[in-house]
Amino acid sequence: MSELTRETIVGFLADIFERCGGEEYLGEPVTMAEHMLQGAHLAEQAGESEAIITAALLHDIGHFTSEFGMFSMDDTKDRYHEEAGASVLAEFFPSVVTDCVRYHVAAKRYLCAVDPDYFGKLSEASVHSLNQQGGPMGASEVEAFELNPNLADIVKLRHFDDAGKLPDMV
Question: Does residue 95 or residue 23 have the better pLDDT?
Answer without folding.
Answer: 95
